[in-house]
Amino acid sequence: MVGHREQLELTIQAKEQESQIASSAGFPPIAGPGARILILGSLPGQRSLQAAQYYAHPQNAFWRIMQELTGAEGPYELRCAGLVKYGIALWDVLAESVRPGSMDADILLETAEVNDFARFFSEHRKIEHVCFNGQKAAEMFRRSVVLDVANEPKLFATLPSTSPAYASMKYEEKLAKWREAIT
């Protein structure tokens, strides 16, 4: 059995290790002036950070789904341009946070810095629909973001995560839910 003193030392060691983990900074939004839909993730994972691209993990279904729904394909820059042409903006709820690894459950919320949505929505007034890529993104947005009613989108939808970690739903089911929300 661990005594109080040993438990305190373990807690201090864990906090010291946490503080040594670098904070992950997100990417700027991908958005054109005609954006009608905003897709929000939580924070880029390690593969995305390394590649400096949204949804860079090869098993993430995001780009496969977007190709099916919007025709966005090819190299990353062309896929992003395809989203913009279709009226879709892409961003994350968090601008920065400590996250050891790539799992949303590992995000240390006490270190999280939320993106400036008031400014984003004031600059992109045509956005009426916000789609969350997974429950965690929706939960963080609802907890952390206060919107100006005048600039607030009218519809919010929580969609199944495209992450390979969310394997309990088949690709075809994810695609159908995304199709219903996006098209």
Provide a brief overview of the structure.
By secondary structure, the chain is α/β, with parallel strands linked by helices. The chain has helices at 4-20, 46-51, 62-70, 76-86, 117-123, 135-144, 171-182; strands at residues 23-25, 37-41, 88-92, 94-98, 108-114, 129-133, 155-159.
Assess the beta-strand content as a share of residues: 15-25%
CATH topology: Uracil-DNA Glycosylase, subunit E
CATH superfamily label = Uracil-DNA glycosylase-like domain
The overall average pLDDT, rounded, is: 88
Radius of gyration: 18 Å
- Give the count of structural domains: 1
The separation of the N and C termini measures: 57 Å
Strand order of the largest sheet: 3-2-6-7
List the helices and strands and how they pair.
Layout: H1 4-20, E1 23-25, E2 37-41, H2 46-51, H3 62-70, H4 76-86, E3 88-92, E4 94-98, E5 108-114, H5 117-123, E6 129-133, H6 135-144, E7 155-159, H7 171-182
Helix pairs in contact: 3-4
Describe this structure as you would to a colleague.
By secondary structure, the chain is an alpha/beta fold. It has one domain: Uracil-DNA Glycosylase, subunit E (3-Layer(aba) Sandwich). Helix content is 39%, strand content 19%. The protein has 7 helices and 7 strands, in the order H-E-E-H-H-H-E-E-E-H-E-H-E-H. The protein has helices at 4-20, 46-51, 62-70, 76-86, 117-123, 135-144, 171-182, and strands at residues 23-25, 37-41, 88-92, 94-98, 108-114, 129-133, 155-159. The strands form 2 sheets. It has a 4-stranded parallel sheet. Strands 1-4-5 form a 3-stranded antiparallel sheet, with helices on one face. Helix 3 (62-70) packs across helix 4. The longest helix is centred in the N-terminal third of the chain and has 17 residues, at 4-20. The model has no long low-confidence stretch (mean pLDDT 88).
